[in-house]
Amino acid sequence: MPELPPPPGRIPGNGGIREAPSLLFSDFAPKEHALERVPEVEEEEEEKEKEVVEIYHVKSASSDNFMEYEEERARRRRCPPCFRMCCACTCLIVSLFLLILLIVGVSLVSSVKSSLPLVNVANLRFPKMEFNGTSAELVLNADSIAVLQFSNKNDKTVLYYSAMTADVSSESIDLGHTKIQGFRQDPDDVRTVRISTRVRKSSVYDVDATLLRDKLKRFEAVVDVFLSGKMGLDFWGVRINLPTVIACEDVNQNEVIQGLKPKCHVLIFEKR
After folding, report:
1. How far apart are CA 244 and CA 34, in angstroms?
2. Do 146 and 227 sit in the same domain of this protein?
3. Is the domain of 231 the same as that of 182?
4. Statement: the pTM of the whole predicted model exceeds 0.70
């Protein structure tokens, strides 16, 4: 019969079966010791926490400064009551001044326009009109006389005319320039002004000369007369002088001869 193995915990020996020595295990470390943190890791985490706290404080400070800045701007934008009152008074005064200036300007323009004289062409003639030379080199020797009639239709306003420059032309041909002395015109007064011009050896184009020569033969020459200077009048006790142009355009000699007295335009605030 085979031998059975010795029971557990027993080992065979020369003196018989003896007890097997028991195994001894050292105690495991407590759980809290196994979970202890490493010192370096703790320091890094503390530094991170400090950085987070510092960033929060910086952001909080920046936010507070921004809010204070916005509040200061809003406070500065708010105008004090006295300043608003001063602005309102200034705007009111400026508006009244502009309104008064506009009323005065309209009154002045209306008064000046109603005081303008009537100017007509009373006479127009050409004592001399000679064309010499060839068609390529044609020259003109001419004398012209234009008589303008000035009528002051106002019953109270006195008109003052400064020295004026007169220009006379016909069919794009210059017939001369001259100066007219200034004069004064009383209310309800009619005055004539004689304008005499002359040109000598003035170069002209053959086409213009032929056209003017043909019209002179039929007494149908068309002439332009311009006077430029200043006209003055009294407005509320103050004399004002206005740039003025008297334009007598497209004056037909035949109409003047018939006594129609073509009308001229008196333009104020104009220069030529």
Report:
1. 114
2. yes
3. yes
4. no
